[in-house]
């Protein structure tokens, strides 16, 4: 029987993810991929600032009238996998998980496969949702063939779209802060804003002169395409998109500090945000 388009998409995503990593990190990411239930990498206009999750309206799974559960909630955290949220309820122990449409409420144990531990409390789930295992991600970065700005010991991963105005602003800050010698910014252009973004991302990746490509990205100079290497391989770009999907990136710029803290959208003050890093 032919596979449904959605099944083919998921299977293709898993196949590409298998190429992306090796060893223990590979197994962790493959397991995480099984949990990702979104339809794929976002397309169309990407958000430039995070707007947060809308309120969840659910029916009480314990027999109360519809909407009563909202009054019982004492805490709520959006998960970075699908549209589930973790909640706590007044007078009830443990953590519950509510689907985004309010239809399902689950009770059970949640394991963070990237960190290799069980999450038992809402604060633990919140911390996991807001951070990633930077050490594991750093092992994969070379396969994405990113641009690197600066020579500092503290790495910062930065996802940008060439035509995102907030990305242009954050790249100006990145170029200035890289001169301080503390940080190295690992910049990964991805196409979230349509075909023109894809054209530019591919051209930057395939450019014969990498320095000229980085300059074009930093100065937003995309009118004249750069000379490309013949037979350029774009596997690294595909891996970047899979990586972005696993991270549930919904807004650009998207930054990850070396302590694992994520920033979705333009930081109010990039230097101050970097200074808050632990370790």
From TrEMBL:
<dbReference type="InterPro" id="IPR036249">
    <property type="entry name" value="Thioredoxin-like_sf"/>
</dbReference>
<dbReference type="InterPro" id="IPR012336">
    <property type="entry name" value="Thioredoxin-like_fold"/>
</dbReference>
<protein>
    <recommendedName>
        <fullName>Thiol:disulfide interchange protein</fullName>
    </recommendedName>
</protein>
<comment type="similarity">
    <text>Belongs to the thioredoxin family. DsbC subfamily.</text>
</comment>
<keyword id="KW-0574">Periplasm</keyword>
<keyword id="KW-0732">Signal</keyword>
<dbReference type="InterPro" id="IPR033954">
    <property type="entry name" value="DiS-bond_Isoase_DsbC/G"/>
</dbReference>
<dbReference type="Pfam" id="PF13098">
    <property type="entry name" value="Thioredoxin_2"/>
</dbReference>
<dbReference type="InterPro" id="IPR051470">
    <property type="entry name" value="Thiol:disulfide_interchange"/>
</dbReference>
<dbReference type="GO" id="GO:0042597">
    <property type="term" value="C:periplasmic space"/>
</dbReference>
<keyword id="KW-0676">Redox-active center</keyword>
<feature type="domain" description="Thioredoxin-like fold">
    <location>
        <begin position="150"/>
        <end position="268"/>
    </location>
</feature>
<comment type="function">
    <text>Required for disulfide bond formation in some periplasmic proteins. Acts by transferring its disulfide bond to other proteins and is reduced in the process.</text>
</comment>
């Amino acid at each position: 029987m032919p596979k449904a388009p959605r099944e083919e998409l998921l299977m293709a995503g898993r196949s590409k993810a298998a190429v992306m990593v090796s060893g223990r990190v590979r197994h962790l990411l493959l397991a995480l991929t099984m949990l990702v239930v979104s339809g794929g990498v976002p397309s169309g206009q990407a958000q430039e600032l995070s707007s947060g999750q809308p309120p969840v309206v659910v029916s009480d799974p314990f027999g109360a009238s519809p909407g009563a559960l909202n009054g019982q909630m004492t805490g709520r955290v959006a998960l970075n996998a699908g549209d589930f949220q973790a909640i706590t309820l007044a007078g009830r122990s443990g953590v519950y998980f509510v689907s985004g449409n309010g239809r399902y409420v689950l009770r059970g144990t949640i394991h963070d496969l990237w960190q290799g531990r069980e999450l038992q409390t809402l604060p633990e789930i919140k911390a996991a949702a807001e951070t990633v295992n930077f050490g594991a991600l750093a092992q994969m970065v070379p396969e994405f063939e990113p641009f690197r700005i600066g020579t500092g010991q503290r790495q910062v991963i930065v996802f940008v779209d060439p035509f995102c105005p907030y990305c242009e602003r954050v790249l100006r800050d990145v170029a200035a802060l890289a001169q301080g010698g503390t940080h190295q910014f690992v910049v990964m252009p991805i196409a979230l804003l349509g075909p023109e973004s894809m054209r530019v991302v591919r051209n930057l990746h395939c450019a014969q002169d990498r320095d000229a490509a980085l300059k074009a990205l930093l100065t937003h100079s995309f009118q004249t395409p750069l000379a490309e290497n013949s037979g350029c391989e774009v596997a690294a770009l595909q891996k970047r998109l899979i990586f972005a999907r696993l991270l549930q990136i919904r807004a650009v710029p998207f930054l990850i500090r070396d302590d694992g803290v994520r920033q979705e959208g333009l930081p109010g003050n990039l230097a101050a945000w970097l200074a808050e890093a632990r370790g």
